[in-house]
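INFO  loader      accepted 1 record
INFO  loader      residues=342
INFO  predictor   begin
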Amino acid sequence: MKKITDSLRDRHIGKIILSTRNYIRLSILLISITIISFGANYALLVQYAFMPEDVTNPAVYRFMESDLFKSNTKTIFKELEDFNNGVHGASYPKDIYLKFPSSFGLNINWHYKISPINNFNNNKLKYDSFISVKLNNNILILFILIESILFILLVYLILNKKSEPEIEYENKRIEEYLKGENYHIENYHYDAIKIVTDIFHGFNRFYLQLNQRYNNRASLVIKDEYDVQDIFNALLKLHFNDVRAEEYTPSHAGSSSRIDFLLNDEKIAIEIKMTRNGLKDAELGGQMLIDINRYSSHDKCNFLFFFIYDPNFLIKEPEALCADIKSKHKNVKVFISPLNIS
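INFO  predictor   done
INFO  writer      dumping tokens
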């Protein structure tokens, strides 16, 4: 059973390693795409910082058309107009500095500088407009920080190399996993067959030990093959998860029968028989041939094992009985206990 567990564990490890490698490759791709797309989007957002700083700049034009700009400049232009018109109490206009976030990543700095109008009446003034479109420093720092983190992570994923022993170990586990279900089934069946064989060989010893009860308590007496089946059922369930008792076989010659035990995952069928008067060499051989023909059509029966319990040694030629069945049928075996002949 340990070999089965180790085989499944190694294949599971191989699957995890392969999945991890695929996730790393996918992460490298996604991070690369993110770096490029994030940089491209940021460039689109701040492209107006590299255009002429006047009303032909779309960022400036959009801002001039906004309610925010109009509400902030309405008052200062009214004060200038009142001063130029000589309105009583109008104060002398001052230079105005305005700073507005135009869009994500940009700031527009607007300087209205007061200057005289160049004509014969020098008492009138005007505003000279100076515009600058600059990158928003906070957003720029955030962009650089995010891009740097992504780039460092990308470099780490690309350059992080494992040692040769680690790579060799991982490749071996992946190779075992990629061999697929055929590898798994073949090895799993091999180990399952060994376990069942060990149970066959140790059955009589187990039964005798089971009857060595404390303080002469009642023993478990095997009277017929149903008692053998009960003990065998318990032993099988120690090692296998899906043990099916009395499994029906497909109809054969108009009738169907039941398999005593079917190890469903391992596709192993087990037939239990116990000798008695009237069930010896010839009768057992005839029953087994009928069973073999019936079970050959069962899609879950790749192996068929017969376990014959012969406590009174009624079988005269056990070796011949086993050899005859084995020579004619590749995936069929006969085990006779307590002689432990197979």
